[in-house]
Amino acid sequence: MVATFAAIAGCTSSSGSKVDASTDGATQADAAATNTDGSVTQGVHKIVFAADFDTNGGCRDHGTNDQCDLYTAELTLSDGSVKNITRATNTSVSESYPAWNPNGKVVYYTVYKDQRTKDLGYVDLTTSKAATFVAGGSWAAVKPDGSTLIYNEGKTSMLMSAPLTGGGLTLGTPTPLTGVASQEDPDYSTDGRYVVLHEITKDLGAVGQVFDTQTKKASSWEQESGHCGFGIDSLITLCDNSKGGGIQSKLFAEGKFGAASLFLPDLKASAMSPFDADFATCPGVSFNYPTFCGDDKHLLVSTSCNQGGEVTFSRLFLIDLSAAEPVYRPIGKALAEAYKGAGKSSWTVSCLR
Protein backbone atom coordinates (compact mmCIF):
# COMPACT_ATOMS: atom_id res chain seq x y z
CA MET A 1 0.00 0.00 0.00
CA VAL A 2 2.78 2.42 0.87
CA ALA A 3 4.57 1.94 -2.44
CA THR A 4 1.43 2.52 -4.48
CA PHE A 5 0.51 5.58 -2.43
CA ALA A 6 3.98 7.06 -2.87
CA ALA A 7 3.88 6.44 -6.60
CA ILE A 8 0.96 8.78 -7.11
CA ALA A 9 1.74 11.24 -4.33
CA GLY A 10 4.02 13.29 -6.57
CA CYS A 11 1.34 13.85 -9.21
CA THR A 12 0.16 17.21 -7.89
CA SER A 13 -0.22 19.13 -11.13
CA SER A 14 -1.67 18.50 -14.56
CA SER A 15 0.57 21.04 -16.29
CA GLY A 16 2.73 19.57 -19.01
CA SER A 17 0.44 16.57 -19.40
CA LYS A 18 0.43 14.86 -22.74
CA VAL A 19 -1.42 12.26 -24.75
CA ASP A 20 0.64 9.20 -25.51
CA ALA A 21 -0.97 6.44 -27.54
CA SER A 22 2.25 4.51 -27.99
CA THR A 23 2.64 1.09 -26.42
CA ASP A 24 6.44 1.11 -26.70
CA GLY A 25 7.96 0.54 -23.27
CA ALA A 26 4.58 0.64 -21.53
CA THR A 27 3.90 -1.68 -18.62
CA GLN A 28 0.61 -3.50 -18.44
CA ALA A 29 -1.48 -3.88 -15.32
CA ASP A 30 -1.70 -7.28 -13.68
CA ALA A 31 -5.44 -7.68 -14.15
CA ALA A 32 -6.78 -9.24 -17.32
CA ALA A 33 -9.90 -9.58 -19.43
CA THR A 34 -11.37 -13.03 -19.93
CA ASN A 35 -11.82 -14.02 -23.57
CA THR A 36 -14.68 -16.10 -24.92
CA ASP A 37 -12.44 -19.16 -25.07
CA GLY A 38 -11.55 -18.79 -21.40
CA SER A 39 -8.08 -17.38 -21.98
CA VAL A 40 -7.05 -14.01 -20.56
CA THR A 41 -5.42 -10.90 -21.99
CA GLN A 42 -3.12 -9.12 -19.57
CA GLY A 43 -3.63 -5.40 -19.12
CA VAL A 44 -7.05 -5.37 -20.82
CA HIS A 45 -10.12 -4.52 -18.76
CA LYS A 46 -13.81 -4.65 -19.50
CA ILE A 47 -15.59 -1.35 -18.99
CA VAL A 48 -19.24 -0.37 -19.11
CA PHE A 49 -20.18 3.24 -19.67
CA ALA A 50 -23.07 5.54 -20.53
CA ALA A 51 -23.02 7.28 -23.91
CA ASP A 52 -25.08 8.97 -26.58
CA PHE A 53 -23.74 7.71 -29.88
CA ASP A 54 -27.00 8.33 -31.77
CA THR A 55 -28.40 11.85 -31.47
CA ASN A 56 -25.30 13.93 -30.68
CA GLY A 57 -26.87 14.81 -27.33
CA GLY A 58 -25.35 14.60 -23.87
CA CYS A 59 -25.58 12.52 -20.74
CA ARG A 60 -26.16 15.19 -18.14
CA ASP A 61 -25.36 15.16 -14.45
CA HIS A 62 -28.71 14.43 -12.84
CA GLY A 63 -30.53 12.83 -15.72
CA THR A 64 -32.83 14.02 -18.46
CA ASN A 65 -34.48 12.30 -21.35
CA ASP A 66 -31.29 12.37 -23.37
CA GLN A 67 -30.70 9.26 -25.43
CA CYS A 68 -28.01 7.99 -23.07
CA ASP A 69 -27.59 4.21 -23.24
CA LEU A 70 -25.05 1.73 -21.89
CA TYR A 71 -22.18 0.19 -23.82
CA THR A 72 -19.42 -2.25 -22.96
CA ALA A 73 -15.89 -2.28 -24.35
CA GLU A 74 -12.41 -3.60 -23.70
CA LEU A 75 -9.80 -1.04 -22.62
CA THR A 76 -6.04 -1.56 -22.83
CA LEU A 77 -4.45 0.39 -20.00
CA SER A 78 -0.99 0.68 -21.55
CA ASP A 79 -2.13 2.86 -24.45
CA GLY A 80 -5.82 3.68 -23.91
CA SER A 81 -6.94 1.77 -26.99
CA VAL A 82 -10.47 0.31 -27.08
CA LYS A 83 -12.08 -2.56 -28.92
CA ASN A 84 -15.17 -4.79 -28.95
CA ILE A 85 -17.59 -1.92 -28.27
CA THR A 86 -21.05 -3.41 -27.78
CA ARG A 87 -24.37 -1.76 -27.06
CA ALA A 88 -25.93 -3.09 -23.85
CA THR A 89 -29.18 -1.07 -23.69
CA ASN A 90 -31.30 0.78 -26.23
CA THR A 91 -34.27 2.68 -24.79
CA SER A 92 -35.98 6.07 -25.00
CA VAL A 93 -34.92 7.07 -21.48
CA SER A 94 -31.52 7.92 -20.00
CA GLU A 95 -29.39 5.21 -18.38
CA SER A 96 -26.14 5.93 -16.55
CA TYR A 97 -24.03 5.27 -13.42
CA PRO A 98 -23.38 1.59 -14.22
CA ALA A 99 -21.93 -0.93 -11.76
CA TRP A 100 -20.56 -4.36 -12.64
CA ASN A 101 -21.50 -7.55 -10.90
CA PRO A 102 -18.09 -9.24 -10.34
CA ASN A 103 -19.22 -12.14 -12.51
CA GLY A 104 -18.96 -9.84 -15.53
CA LYS A 105 -22.38 -10.94 -16.77
CA VAL A 106 -24.73 -8.43 -15.10
CA VAL A 107 -24.63 -4.64 -14.97
CA TYR A 108 -26.78 -2.50 -12.67
CA TYR A 109 -27.55 1.12 -13.54
CA THR A 110 -29.74 4.14 -12.82
CA VAL A 111 -32.67 4.77 -15.14
CA TYR A 112 -33.86 8.37 -15.42
CA LYS A 113 -37.47 8.30 -16.61
CA ASP A 114 -37.43 12.07 -16.16
CA GLN A 115 -35.31 14.49 -14.17
CA ARG A 116 -36.69 13.38 -10.80
CA THR A 117 -38.01 9.86 -11.36
CA LYS A 118 -35.43 7.10 -11.13
CA ASP A 119 -35.34 3.31 -11.03
CA LEU A 120 -32.49 0.88 -10.54
CA GLY A 121 -32.25 -1.35 -13.58
CA TYR A 122 -30.14 -4.27 -14.67
CA VAL A 123 -29.06 -5.85 -17.92
CA ASP A 124 -28.03 -9.47 -18.27
CA LEU A 125 -25.25 -9.34 -20.85
CA THR A 126 -25.57 -13.04 -21.65
CA THR A 127 -29.22 -12.76 -22.70
CA SER A 128 -29.50 -8.98 -23.39
CA LYS A 129 -32.49 -8.87 -21.04
CA ALA A 130 -32.90 -5.47 -19.35
CA ALA A 131 -35.47 -4.75 -16.66
CA THR A 132 -36.22 -2.77 -13.51
CA PHE A 133 -34.44 -4.24 -10.50
CA VAL A 134 -35.60 -1.83 -7.76
CA ALA A 135 -38.41 0.65 -8.41
CA GLY A 136 -37.30 4.03 -7.13
CA GLY A 137 -33.73 2.83 -6.60
CA SER A 138 -30.46 4.28 -7.92
CA TRP A 139 -26.67 4.40 -7.37
CA ALA A 140 -25.67 0.72 -7.15
CA ALA A 141 -22.47 -0.91 -5.87
CA VAL A 142 -21.71 -4.62 -5.56
CA LYS A 143 -19.49 -6.24 -2.95
CA PRO A 144 -16.39 -7.70 -4.61
CA ASP A 145 -17.44 -11.26 -3.75
CA GLY A 146 -20.79 -10.66 -5.46
CA SER A 147 -22.82 -11.40 -2.33
CA THR A 148 -24.34 -7.98 -1.63
CA LEU A 149 -25.84 -5.04 -3.51
CA ILE A 150 -25.95 -1.52 -2.07
CA TYR A 151 -28.27 1.08 -3.58
CA ASN A 152 -30.04 4.32 -2.77
CA GLU A 153 -33.70 3.86 -1.83
CA GLY A 154 -35.82 6.60 -3.36
CA LYS A 155 -38.38 7.31 -0.62
CA THR A 156 -35.97 7.65 2.31
CA SER A 157 -32.83 8.41 0.25
CA MET A 158 -30.98 5.95 2.50
CA LEU A 159 -28.44 3.44 1.28
CA MET A 160 -29.84 -0.07 1.50
CA SER A 161 -27.94 -3.35 1.58
CA ALA A 162 -29.43 -6.58 0.22
CA PRO A 163 -28.11 -10.08 -0.54
CA LEU A 164 -27.61 -11.08 -4.17
CA THR A 165 -28.18 -14.61 -5.44
CA GLY A 166 -29.04 -16.30 -8.72
CA GLY A 167 -25.99 -14.98 -10.54
CA GLY A 168 -26.77 -11.46 -9.41
CA LEU A 169 -30.35 -11.47 -10.70
CA THR A 170 -32.20 -12.14 -7.43
CA LEU A 171 -32.29 -9.54 -4.67
CA GLY A 172 -33.02 -10.47 -1.07
CA THR A 173 -34.62 -8.40 1.68
CA PRO A 174 -32.93 -5.00 2.01
CA THR A 175 -31.83 -3.38 5.28
CA PRO A 176 -30.43 0.11 5.89
CA LEU A 177 -26.66 0.30 5.54
CA THR A 178 -26.00 3.31 7.79
CA GLY A 179 -29.51 4.44 8.76
CA VAL A 180 -28.68 7.99 7.59
CA ALA A 181 -30.74 9.73 4.91
CA SER A 182 -29.43 11.62 1.87
CA GLN A 183 -26.53 9.27 1.15
CA GLU A 184 -25.71 8.06 -2.35
CA ASP A 185 -23.10 6.92 -4.88
CA PRO A 186 -21.44 4.08 -2.87
CA ASP A 187 -18.29 2.15 -3.75
CA TYR A 188 -16.80 -0.89 -2.00
CA SER A 189 -13.18 -1.31 -0.98
CA THR A 190 -11.41 -4.28 -2.57
CA ASP A 191 -11.67 -6.33 0.63
CA GLY A 192 -15.40 -5.59 0.94
CA ARG A 193 -15.13 -4.15 4.44
CA TYR A 194 -15.49 -0.43 3.70
CA VAL A 195 -17.98 1.61 1.69
CA VAL A 196 -17.16 5.10 0.48
CA LEU A 197 -20.14 7.34 -0.27
CA HIS A 198 -21.21 10.94 -0.16
CA GLU A 199 -23.85 12.51 2.05
CA ILE A 200 -25.81 15.61 1.14
CA THR A 201 -25.54 18.13 4.01
CA LYS A 202 -27.04 21.56 4.59
CA ASP A 203 -23.74 23.28 5.31
CA LEU A 204 -21.23 21.80 2.86
CA GLY A 205 -23.33 20.13 0.19
CA ALA A 206 -21.94 16.71 -0.75
CA VAL A 207 -19.38 15.36 1.74
CA GLY A 208 -17.39 12.16 1.24
CA GLN A 209 -17.51 9.51 3.96
CA VAL A 210 -16.14 6.03 4.58
CA PHE A 211 -18.38 3.57 6.42
CA ASP A 212 -16.84 0.56 8.17
CA THR A 213 -19.28 -2.34 7.81
CA GLN A 214 -17.67 -4.15 10.76
CA THR A 215 -17.55 -1.39 13.37
CA LYS A 216 -20.58 0.47 11.91
CA LYS A 217 -18.66 3.74 12.23
CA ALA A 218 -18.30 6.46 9.60
CA SER A 219 -15.39 8.82 8.93
CA SER A 220 -15.91 12.10 7.06
CA TRP A 221 -13.79 14.14 4.66
CA GLU A 222 -15.25 17.21 6.43
CA GLN A 223 -15.11 19.26 3.25
CA GLU A 224 -17.11 19.46 0.04
CA SER A 225 -16.44 16.22 -1.81
CA GLY A 226 -18.71 13.98 -3.81
CA HIS A 227 -18.85 11.01 -6.17
CA CYS A 228 -16.08 9.21 -4.34
CA GLY A 229 -14.30 5.97 -5.15
CA PHE A 230 -11.75 3.61 -3.59
CA GLY A 231 -8.35 2.59 -4.84
CA ILE A 232 -7.80 -1.00 -5.87
CA ASP A 233 -4.38 -1.65 -4.35
CA SER A 234 -4.96 0.52 -1.27
CA LEU A 235 -7.57 2.47 0.66
CA ILE A 236 -7.01 5.67 -1.30
CA THR A 237 -10.27 7.61 -1.50
CA LEU A 238 -10.89 9.81 -4.54
CA CYS A 239 -13.61 12.43 -4.71
CA ASP A 240 -14.62 15.13 -7.17
CA ASN A 241 -16.31 18.43 -6.23
CA SER A 242 -13.44 18.83 -3.79
CA LYS A 243 -12.20 22.15 -2.50
CA GLY A 244 -10.90 24.05 -5.52
CA GLY A 245 -12.64 21.79 -8.05
CA GLY A 246 -11.15 18.82 -9.84
CA ILE A 247 -10.30 15.51 -8.19
CA GLN A 248 -8.56 15.04 -4.87
CA SER A 249 -7.47 11.94 -2.98
CA LYS A 250 -6.76 11.06 0.63
CA LEU A 251 -5.40 7.89 2.16
CA PHE A 252 -7.78 6.18 4.58
CA ALA A 253 -6.27 4.07 7.35
CA GLU A 254 -7.41 2.99 10.81
CA GLY A 255 -10.56 5.06 10.63
CA LYS A 256 -8.84 8.31 9.68
CA PHE A 257 -8.04 10.23 6.52
CA GLY A 258 -4.48 11.28 5.77
CA ALA A 259 -3.36 14.42 4.03
CA ALA A 260 -4.26 15.05 0.39
CA SER A 261 -1.99 12.98 -1.84
CA LEU A 262 -3.18 13.73 -5.34
CA PHE A 263 -4.88 16.75 -6.84
CA LEU A 264 -5.98 16.94 -10.47
CA PRO A 265 -7.46 20.41 -11.02
CA ASP A 266 -10.15 21.13 -13.57
CA LEU A 267 -8.54 22.28 -16.81
CA LYS A 268 -9.34 25.05 -19.27
CA ALA A 269 -10.56 24.35 -22.79
CA SER A 270 -7.17 25.34 -24.18
CA ALA A 271 -5.56 22.59 -22.12
CA MET A 272 -8.04 19.89 -23.14
CA SER A 273 -8.57 20.70 -26.82
CA PRO A 274 -5.15 19.35 -27.94
CA PHE A 275 -6.33 15.98 -26.60
CA ASP A 276 -9.86 16.25 -28.01
CA ALA A 277 -10.77 19.10 -30.37
CA ASP A 278 -14.45 19.02 -29.33
CA PHE A 279 -13.46 20.78 -26.08
CA ALA A 280 -12.04 23.83 -27.88
CA THR A 281 -15.16 25.99 -27.46
CA CYS A 282 -16.09 24.90 -23.94
CA PRO A 283 -16.42 27.79 -21.43
CA GLY A 284 -15.42 25.40 -18.65
CA VAL A 285 -14.07 21.86 -18.34
CA SER A 286 -14.38 19.67 -15.25
CA PHE A 287 -13.43 16.17 -14.10
CA ASN A 288 -16.13 14.02 -12.51
CA TYR A 289 -16.82 10.50 -11.25
CA PRO A 290 -13.26 9.18 -10.81
CA THR A 291 -12.68 5.43 -10.68
CA PHE A 292 -9.48 3.42 -10.75
CA CYS A 293 -9.09 0.67 -13.32
CA GLY A 294 -6.69 -2.23 -12.98
CA ASP A 295 -4.51 -0.60 -10.32
CA ASP A 296 -4.04 2.68 -8.47
CA LYS A 297 -2.12 4.22 -11.37
CA HIS A 298 -4.84 4.25 -14.02
CA LEU A 299 -7.78 6.55 -13.42
CA LEU A 300 -10.96 6.81 -15.47
CA VAL A 301 -12.87 10.11 -15.33
CA SER A 302 -15.84 11.76 -17.02
CA THR A 303 -14.53 15.01 -18.50
CA SER A 304 -17.34 17.51 -18.97
CA CYS A 305 -17.86 20.56 -21.13
CA ASN A 306 -19.78 23.02 -18.93
CA GLN A 307 -21.82 26.00 -20.08
CA GLY A 308 -24.12 28.06 -17.87
CA GLY A 309 -24.01 25.46 -15.12
CA GLU A 310 -25.01 22.65 -17.47
CA VAL A 311 -23.02 19.76 -18.90
CA THR A 312 -23.36 20.11 -22.68
CA PHE A 313 -21.34 17.00 -23.46
CA SER A 314 -18.76 14.77 -21.82
CA ARG A 315 -15.98 12.41 -22.84
CA LEU A 316 -14.22 9.68 -20.90
CA PHE A 317 -10.50 10.06 -20.29
CA LEU A 318 -7.94 7.57 -19.01
CA ILE A 319 -5.36 9.31 -16.82
CA ASP A 320 -2.08 7.44 -16.41
CA LEU A 321 -0.48 8.37 -13.07
CA SER A 322 2.58 6.15 -13.37
CA ALA A 323 4.83 8.90 -14.77
CA ALA A 324 6.07 12.10 -13.11
CA GLU A 325 3.24 14.01 -14.80
CA PRO A 326 -0.24 12.63 -15.57
CA VAL A 327 -0.74 11.40 -19.14
CA TYR A 328 -4.23 12.02 -20.53
CA ARG A 329 -5.62 9.56 -23.06
CA PRO A 330 -8.94 10.51 -24.73
CA ILE A 331 -10.69 7.16 -24.74
CA GLY A 332 -14.11 8.82 -25.12
CA LYS A 333 -13.02 10.18 -28.49
CA ALA A 334 -11.67 6.76 -29.43
CA LEU A 335 -14.91 5.07 -28.35
CA ALA A 336 -17.08 7.40 -30.45
CA GLU A 337 -14.86 7.04 -33.51
CA ALA A 338 -14.62 3.27 -33.17
CA TYR A 339 -18.37 2.91 -32.77
CA LYS A 340 -18.91 5.26 -35.74
CA GLY A 341 -21.90 6.89 -34.11
CA ALA A 342 -23.07 10.46 -34.62
CA GLY A 343 -23.00 11.36 -30.94
CA LYS A 344 -20.03 12.56 -28.96
CA SER A 345 -20.93 12.04 -25.29
CA SER A 346 -19.57 9.31 -23.04
CA TRP A 347 -20.26 9.45 -19.34
CA THR A 348 -19.97 7.58 -16.00
CA VAL A 349 -17.87 4.44 -16.35
CA SER A 350 -17.33 1.26 -14.34
CA CYS A 351 -14.26 -0.96 -14.72
CA LEU A 352 -14.58 -4.69 -14.06
CA ARG A 353 -12.04 -5.56 -11.37
| Mass-distribution shape | globular
Tell how many strands the DSSP assignment holds.
Answer: 27
* Low-pLDDT ranges: 1-31, 36-40
| Cα gyration radius (Å) | 19 Å
Alpha-carbon distance between the termini? Answer: 17 Å
Structural class: mainly beta
What is the residue-averaged pLDDT?
Answer: 85
Binned, the helix content reads under 10%
Q: Compute the number of helices.
A: 3
Q: Name the CATH homologous superfamily.
A: TolB, C-terminal domain
CATH architecture: 6 Propeller
CATH topology heading:
Neuraminidase
Number of domains: 1
Largest sheet: 5 strands, antiparallel
The arrangement of helices and strands along the chain is HEEEEEEEEEEEEEEEEEEEEEEHEEEEHE
By CATH reckoning, the class would read Mainly Beta
**What percent of residues are in strands?**
over 45%
Could you explain how this protein is built, in words?
The protein has 353 residues and is mostly beta strands. The protein has a single domain, classed as Neuraminidase (6 Propeller), CATH 2.120.10.30. It has three helices and 27 strands. The strands form seven sheets. Strands 10, 11, 12, 13 and 14 form a five-stranded antiparallel beta sheet that branches. Strands 5-4-3-27 form a four-stranded antiparallel beta sheet, covered by helices on one side. The longest helix has 9 residues, at 331-339. It is globular, with a radius of gyration of 19 Å.
Layout of SSEs?
Elements: H1 2-9, E1 32-34, E2 40-42, E3 44-52, E4 69-76, E5 82-87, E6 94-100, E7 106-112, E8 118-124, E9 129-135, E10 137-142, E11 148-153, E12 159-165, E13 170-171, E14 175-176, E15 183-188, E16 194-201, E17 205-212, E18 218-224, E19 226-230, E20 236-240, E21 247-253, E22 256-264, H2 269-272, E23 284-293, E24 295-307, E25 310-320, E26 327-329, H3 331-339, E27 345-351
Antiparallel strand pairs: 1-2, 3-4, 3-27, 4-5, 6-7, 7-8, 8-9, 10-11, 11-12, 12-13, 12-14, 15-16, 16-17, 17-18, 19-20, 20-21, 21-22, 23-24, 24-25, 25-26
